[in-house]
Each structure stands twice: as structure tokens, then as C-alpha cells.
Specification:
transmembrane helix, 672 residues, Alkaline Phosphatase, subunit A, 26 strands, alpha/beta
């Protein structure tokens, strides 16, 4: 391309990728403004920490496609065909050996029949010399007296002795904390556990009691208790309403299980989970290559997915409940005198979310057994945004995780992403997988107990991108076990991330700037769906190639809900469903559309058709230098005492990308 041709085509923006550190003198402002006016160029130089490298927008212009590959046949939204193992990616990854948990730490107390505890005498003899004869369990629950937010604390019942090494079925708790002591003579009076209230210890200080506890408590572990909580789904009455011409009389409503891996992009799933994906694809897994975020973090994406609303809609301050009213202190500093003034303010926090339309609750009303779990203690959906006052699901695992992190079996660590992520002899992700497997073992043995649940795992993917490589074979084995035991026979399985990785240095590459916006998303459907709803399946298959977002996932959930509510129609294309958001059910045909139509803010839009430019062109360096000075002298003007001036070191890549005003294309394929 000649210089004159370049000047003719420049009606867009130049995107540069470089590494900068110290400032360079500004060239003539008149020359710079002349260039900008003549070329009509908007340019961005990404130089600062973890900013998104390209801010793309939807484009409808066809710019010479032979300048680069595109994964899209759409003329509305082009997304580059990205190589997950591009050399820039390989240089950014540092895959460490699997962390191995200590093998000598074994579980002393096991669960039988899902609800009974018993002391494992083999472990007792091997690791405790057979000295453990007395253990107790305490029921774990949410704290009803928590003043402000219900998801920051939990309660423990009085200790209950495990008599003769086992218990009867525990039917009034979802989680129990077990403890074993090496001082049975003084801690127990017959079948009664007196602990530190024994007469000998009554006058002890709390510090002394804590020291004694540390010396005598030799085992502590949190166990989930799973049991049937609801009556069977009225399958007979429901199936009688189904058209016998279309479906068999024993057809039952499908379960919906969603497994979310925090901060996993589509490309990262391809890199780190090849065995899992290969196995699931052999079963018919549908993967959505162009699935896109609608916000930055988990909250901004999971709210549209589960509530069908913007995250900002749930962040309205609660002015009517004093429990969400807090007194805060602001310190103002006079610039001239440097005097400090304290100002006390009352701040109203948002929450709770109990009265919002939570899609899981809608399934619960139809007699679905529901669950919600997220591993992390400090950065979970519930507590960061004030969560729910009442448990929103039948099984709500927040108390389980809170108590787990305070037991002896966990390697003490303040914060998330423990460098030794073990619970006794297991890596933490096994706890989520084991709970889900036991849950499905109870509820999916028969078709009479449909379920809807969210299982979100953080520890092995959020902070350390490379940890995901550790769990590939574990996930494959997990899904393989469920399939072989027929526990997913009538289940819609969604296996996905929530957004791409936001903290890794991978984001400083061109590919990383794209994949943060393109989370992993896939669906595995029951075989009965392919047989009974061929057109809906054909639509879903075609939609793998279209631009989708979490709004579409929400509408898919609603579409499934309508199938259960309207068994006389049942087919996802026949039930009375209309979208209430910018999304479209994945069972319906989704037209070619841009980000605006899909409900994707321009900041997160991955649509980008670019032309690579010769970095040796003089104008490229001139624009790069101007960008540096713009950042130094305008954007960082008030922060020069904190930031080093920037300097152009290398221009790695220069691209031309055309800018257009986003035009919303109506979703007119859904008819009343």
C-alpha cells in the first residue's frame, strides 16, 4: 500500500501496542493538529498496566478481507481468528507443576448414605494410633442475627457426641462441622461433651482456652449433608398434559446444571482443558466461539445471566432499611493550609436481592430443587454486593465455605488463591466437584426430582491463569463419571467461564486484549432434545457462529422455564416465550447483529476488522509519540508525582481499524 492509498483509507483509528517508560519532547503542536485534521484519525496507545489494548466497536464496512483472517462470515461483526498458542501467548504463560497435597492427611470421619457420620478406624489406627474414641459434630447454618449482611457469618450448634463411632441420619442440617480431641477423659462426661465448660476449665481465660484447644483438638472437618428436601415432581400430572402424538408418556422436565470456571476465556479453555473438551465434544458439546461479556467482572455478567437486568439496576441504595445504613467518615484536606477536616456521612448501601426476579427462584416455584455455590470467602457474589437476606436456593453453600476456611484441615491463608490450595489431602476444586456429584447421585437417580443449580469455582482459575491446566483431567474424570452413571441423562449442562482473565500479563498482548471479552461458553443437551426438538437444535447449532452474550443465556433459561410451565406445548419453539431483554433464546434463530443489538457495551465489543500497517511508516512513529505526550501531559497531568514519564521503546504492531457510529439492528426474528 502506498502512502497516498493509506491517506485515502485512513478514516478510522490506529491501534498501537508498545512498552513505554520515560517521556519524549513534544513535536510541533501545529504539525500534529494538521495531521489529525487531515487524516481524521483516532488513535490509542496502550501503555499502562492492564488496560484493554484495543477498544473495538461494531463495524459494517468491508475492509479488504485479504489482510487477515476472520472467524466470522458475518458482514456486521468481524472477530479475528485468534490462535490460542500464538507465540506472544506462549511467552506470557508460566505453567508450574501440579501442587501436590500432603498424602498423610486423611479424613478421619466419613459419610455413609449421604447423612450418617462414622469414624474411620483404619485412618484412626494409621494416623492417630487408634487413640481417637470421642468426636463431636456441630450443625452449621446461616446467622439469622447478623445485623447487616447475611453472608458474612455463620452459626454453630452445641456439640453433639458421635456415640460408638457413628451417628444416625442427620436430617436437619446441610453442613456439619466435626471435631475430634485427644483429651477424652476431661472433655467428656459419659455421652455429654462439656469441652471448656468442664469444672476444671471454668476459670480459664479465653487465651488459655484457645491454647488448650490448639493442643487438644486434633481433627476438624466440614461435611456436607445432602438429602431430599422436596416432594417428587408431579411427573404423572405434568406428562398427562403433553401431546402423546409428539412425546412419550414418561417424558419429564429437564434439569439445568451450570458449572462456571471463574475468569476462563474461550481461548484459555482450549489451551488448558483439551482432554475435558475433547471428551465432552465427543458427546455433542456445543461451543459458542463468539460469546461475549457485557461487563467487566463476575457481578456485571452474572446479574444479566441470572436476573435479566443490568448490574447497575441492583446497585440502587436502600433508603428504607436501616440495616443498610452506615456511618462513614471522610477527611478533607485544605490545599492551601493543609488542615484536615473530618466529615461524618450516612451512606446507604444497596441490597438485598431477595425481591428481584432471580431466575433460580422461578424454577424453585415449579418444584425444582435448587442450589448455588461459590468457593471464595472474601470475593464471592453474595458478600461483595450484600447478597440475600433469605437463602435464595434450597442448597445455599455460603455457610459451608465460610466455615471450611476456618477449620484445621485448611491451610490458613488470609485472602483468596491460597498458595497451598488444599483441604486435607485434596485440592479445593475437588470439594465443589464432590458435592455436585453427591447431589446428583441423590436427585438424578430418578426423573422425579428436577434440579436447577449454579456451581462456581474460583480457586483454580481466577488469580492464577496457569492453575487451570492442573484440573483438566480431573474435570474430564468428573464428567465421565456422571455420564457413565446416567446422572446427566435428562440434564441441560452449561459449562462456561464468566469472563476472560483480567489480571494476567497475557492481557498486555493483542490476543489477551480480545480474549478477556470472550468467555468460554458451551452447552451439552440431553439426547432426547435432539430427537424431540430438531429445529431448536439446528438453531442452537447455527448460533454457535453468531455473536451471543449473557442476555441470550438468560432468555434461554426463561425459554426452558416456559417449557416446564407449558407441557402441552413443551417445544422451545412453540411455547409462549417473548424476550424481555436484548437477548434471544439460543434455541431460536439469532440473526446477524452488532454489539449494540446484542446488549454488549461498546467497551466490551470484540468486533474488530483491522488492516496491519507498516510500522516503519514515518506517520506511525509521529502518532505514537503524540500519544505518549498526550498520556503524560493530559491524562497523567495531576499524577506526575506518582508516575514516571513515558518513553517510546518499541512499536510492535500498528493497525488501521475503521470507526462507525453503532447502529442498533432490531431483533426482529421473534414473532408474537
Amino acid at each position: 500500500m502506498t502512502m497516498s492509498e493509506l491517506l485515502t483509507k485512513l478514516s478510522g483509528r490506529l491501534c498501537f501496542h508498545g512498552f513505554l517508560s520515560i517521556s519524549i519532547p513534544v513535536r510541533s503542536r501545529q504539525r500534529i493538529f494538521y495531521l489529525l485534521f487531515s487524516l481524521h484519525v483516532i488513535f490509542f496507545l496502550i501503555v499502562y498496566h492492564r488496560l484493554i489494548l484495543i477498544t473495538p466497536s461494531s463495524t459494517t464496512n468491508k475492509i479488504s478481507a485479504n489482510n487477515g483472517k476472520s472467524s466470522s462470515s458475518s458482514s456486521i461483526c468481524h472477530i479475528p481468528d485468534l490462535n490460542p498458542w500464538d507465540q506472544t501467548v506462549s511467552k506470557s504463560l508460566n505453567i508450574k507443576p501440579l501442587y501436590v497435597c500432603p498424602k498423610h492427611k486423611k479424613n478421619l470421619i466419613n459419610i455413609i448414605n449421604h447423612t450418617k457420620l462414622f469414624i474411620n478406624q483404619t485412618v484412626n489406627k494409621t494416623y492417630f494410633s487408634g487413640l481417637i474414641t470421642h468426636c463431636v459434630y456441630l450443625k452449621v447454618d446461616r446467622n439469622p442475627e447478623e445485623k447487616h449482611f447475611r453472608d458474612w457469618s455463620y452459626t454453630l450448634s452445641e456439640p453433639i457426641l458421635i456415640i460408638n463411632g457413628r451417628t444416625e441420619s442427620i436430617l436437619d442440617a446441610d453442613f456439619v462441622l466435626t471435631r475430634c480431641y485427644n483429651n477424652r477423659k476431661e472433655y467428656f462426661h459419659g455421652e455429654y461433651f462439656c469441652g471448656y465448660n468442664c469444672s476444671k476449665y471454668k476459670n480459664m481465660s479465653q487465651v488459655q482456652k484457645q491454647i488448650l484447644r490448639n493442643r487438644t483438638l486434633v481433627y476438624e472437618y466440614i461435611h456436607p449433608i445432602i438429602r431430599l428436601k422436596k416432594p417428587p415432581f408431579p411427573s404423572k400430572i405434568w406428562s398427562e398434559k403433553i401431546s402423546k402424538k409428539l412425546f412419550s408418556s414418561n417424558y419429564s422436565p429437564p434439569s439445568v446444571i451450570t458449572v462456571i470456571l471463574d475468569a476462563v476465556s474461550n481461548l484459555q479453555a482450549q489451551r488448558a482443558l483439551p482432554h475435558t473438551l475433547s471428551y465432552l465434544k465427543s458427546l455433542g458439546l456445543y461451543t459458542f466461539q463468539r460469546h461475549t461479556v457485557v461487563g467487566d467482572g463476575t457481578f456485571e455478567n452474572i446479574i444479566p445471566m441470572l436476573f435479566g437486568q443490568l448490574a447497575s439496576d441492583l446497585q440502587i441504595p436502600n433508603l428504607n432499611d436501616s440495616r443498610y445504613e452506615f456511618l462513614t467518615t471522610e477527611i478533607l484536606i485544605d490545599r492551601k493550609t493543609k488542615n484536615r477536616t473530618e466529615i461524618k456521612k450516612i451512606v446507604h448501601y444497596p441490597g438485598p436481592y431477595d425481591n428481584y426476579s432471580f431466575i433460580i427462584k422461578n424454577f424453585s416455584k415449579l418444584n425444582y430443587t435448587t442450589f448455588f455455590s461459590e468457593e471464595w470467602r472474601d470475593s464471592a457474589l453474595y458478600n461483595l454486593k450484600n447478597g440475600f437476606r433469605q437463602s435464595p436456593t434450597d442448597y445455599y453453600l455460603r455457610p459451608y465455605w465460610l466455615s471450611l476456611y476456618e477449620t484445621l484441615s485448611y491451610n490458613t491463608f488470609s485472602g483468596n488463591s491460597n498458595p497451598k490450595p488444599c483441604y486435607l489431602d485434596k485440592l479445593l476444586h475437588f470439594l465443589s466437584l464432590d458435592w455436585l456429584k453427591e447431589f446428583l447421585n441423590i436427585y438424578h437417580k430418578t426423573p422425579n426430582y428436577p434440579t436447577f443449580g449454579i456451581m462456581k469455582m474460583n480457586e483454580m482459575s481466577h488469580d492464577y491463569l496457569e492453575r487451570l491446566f492442573w484440573i483438566d483431567r480431573d474435570l474430564k474424570t468428573f464428567f465421565q463419571d456422571l455420564i457413565e452413571k446416567n446422572l446427566l441423562d435428562n440434564t441441560i449442562l452449561i459449562f462456561c467461564g464468566d469472563h476472560g482473565h483480567r489480571q494476567h500479563r497475557l492481557r498486555l498482548t493483542r490476543i489477551g486484549s480480545f480474549e478477556v471479552k470472550l468467555p468460554f461458553f458451551s452447552i451439552l443437551l440431553p439426547k432426547s432434545f435432539e430427537k424431540n426438538f430438531p429445529q431448536a437444535i439446528a438453531n442452537l447449532k447455527n448460533n454457535q457462529k453468531t455473536l451471543t452474550s449473557w442476555w441470550d443465556v438468560y432468555e434461554t433459561f426463561v425459554n426452558i422455564l416456559k417449557m416446564v410451565e407449558q407441557p402441552h406445548l413443551l417445544d422451545p419453539l412453540r411455547v409462549k416465550w417473548q424476550p424481555t431483554t436484548s437477548g434471544i433464546s439460543l434455541f431460536h434463530p439469532i440473526p446477524e447483529r452488532n454489539c449494540s443489538s446484542a446488549g454488549i457495551p461498546d467497551k466490551y465489543c470484540p468486533c474488530s476488522l483491522t488492516i496491519p500497517l507498516d510500522i516503519e511508516l514515518p506517520i506511525i512513529k509521529e502518532l505514537a509519540i503524540y500519544s505518549i505526550n498526550y498520556i503524560d501531559n493530559i491524562k497523567l497531568k495531576n499524577h506526575k508525582h506518582l508516575c514516571m514519564p513515558l518513553e517510546l521503546k518499541t512499536i510492535i504492531r500498528a493497525e488501521l481499524e475503521e470507526l462507525h457510529v453503532p447502529i442498533k439492528i432490531p431483533n426482529d426474528t421473534i414473532k408474537s
